[in-house]
Amino acid sequence: MSKPATESTLCKVNRILGISDSYEAPAKMMELLLGDSRNRRMIFHVFLEQFEYDLSYEWFYNYFQDEHADRKNNKQDFTPVCVSNLISEMLNCKPRDDSYTIIEEPAAGTGSTIIAHWHKSFRSCRFPWDYRPDDYLYRLTELSSKTVPFLLFNVMIRGMNAIVIHGNSLTKEIEAAYWIYNEENNPMGFSDIYIIPKERYDFITGDVQMKNENKRKKLTLNLDDLLDF
Predict the structure, then answer these.
(1) How many Cβ atoms from other residues are within 10 Å of residue 62's Cβ?
(2) In 3D, which of 24, 122, 20, 111 has the Cα closest to residue 59?
């Protein structure tokens, strides 16, 4: 069941972002994510404290549903937490020994469904430090420019590895793409963000799995291919 949205929750998000109106939130969030990494991590810690360190659900569901859902043009509604949890329980996406598991979400929204999967995988470990972020690679597509910054935030604050595509899943048109990477493979850490150059878009729309000695090396090589290092 979704956690209730109250006016104080809306004010809380706006206050942390330093804005007076929620329409400013997407641009401000994107500025934060692409800006100074130390400031970004500080804001992440503020959000964690304000939301009681509970990463099991998508914090912005009601905030976004009420303020930014584009029902008229994009028929956009966001997946309730209870539905995301149900989908996660129905899927059995376990990591493989020789590689990482790719989780595809062609209409990711703010990330409710993949958060449910991440939380299920995390809590399946006996100890928190047994969880390995590099066991999974999330490939997420979202059409709305208002939604993408919050999707990126949700992936990064949970330390996931992901390719996030701002584009159309049906036509394969891409506005922008981002590589989200937990370089230290730290289950309690944050991920960094890299902008994927346009000349690498053909790579992210194809099969991203690669054959190498171990899954960690595979993710590193994917990073090299995506960013043309």
Answers:
(1) 19
(2) 111
